[in-house]
Amino acid sequence: MKKRVVVTGVGVVSPIGIGKDKFWENLKNGKSGISYIERFPTDDYPTKIAGEIKDFNPEDFIDKREVRRLDRFCQFALASTMLALKDADWEPTEEEKENTAVIVASGIGGLETLESQFRILFEKGPKKVSPFVVPMMIINMASGNIAIQYGFKGPNFAPVTACAASSHAVGYGYKLIAQGEVECAIVGGTEASITPMGLAGFCAIQALSTQNDPPEKASKPFDARRDGFVMSEGAGILILESLEHALKRNARIYAEIIGFGTSDDGYHITAPDPEGIGAMLAMKRAILDSGISFDMIDYINAHGTSTKLNDKVETLAIKKLFGEHAYRLAISSNKSIFGHLLGAAGAVECVATVLSIYNGIIPPTINYEEKDPDCDLDYVPNKARVKEIRYALKNSFGFGGQNASLVFKKYSNEK
Does residue 325 carry a catalytic annotation? Predict the structure, then answer.
């Protein structure tokens, strides 16, 4: 018999706010975090916008001496973890630390460090390369540094599945607790790839929106005029606990996780399967794992990237799986508001999902103005909706065809 798993704390660093309260206020009000890129010149780029975090000071969260040894993606992860632990009102004991997993993902890792050290290598030679370059850039250092900072000694790893990575992290944390291997888990994702190379790479595959003016209108999931996603940066961390552990310490509970499903399209490195089979299988497996019926899902927090293919295929997959119930579902894309956080997207959107359940409010899909006949479901356009959410499904799909879906439940004392 698997243990029940609950979410007791959330921490977020995002383009629409640092910390749960500011993040949620801007999310439910549909206040965009997309703006012109300020960190480097974009004259030669077709895309000049992103979800930059302009008010982040790492020294608010990390010792000044340590900051310079951490890539921005690790800084975001440590800051979000501190915020999540504070939100959970949890100061773990040594015994609890031994039974706490840390699973924090990234899609790209320390790209900023890698770029800067390549310049040093080519301009000044190998002897000038930093001895910290490897531990600063590798993806597992987010989870590793969190464990080092707090002394967590449970399982520790970093899924790397592109834009599905942090939903996989949440799912695997849920599984470890449900199976009784640990009592608690620090899970989520982090990303800081708004760099010259990061932007150039996504521009080269024509994945990004070029609707630069005005920036806040560029990300328009499911709208007929969508032309690509908008890159963002940040991190999201969730504190997961077994229900027994949470009740024992009288923790506030945001929501319960009851299902997790994964799949692969087996089709193409960047394009989704046009038939939506992989996406459908991930959702199906998550719901089957949860033990509920398909028509009990009230809300889907969509992957919803604002690319032509993703939104069409995700809609198709939802219709194939849910049949007529698809038209009764409320669906929204947070990426319309804060852009696409790549490997961190799933975790930040999981934070949004549990806050939606807890507060009974569905954030809108903003910039939805022109209907696409291929996208004909209820995307909660432009204005938040007050609605009790009993069961919510969270979707994440990544390059490589790697998919992850999670089922969240409104918490009650009843099973």
Answer: no
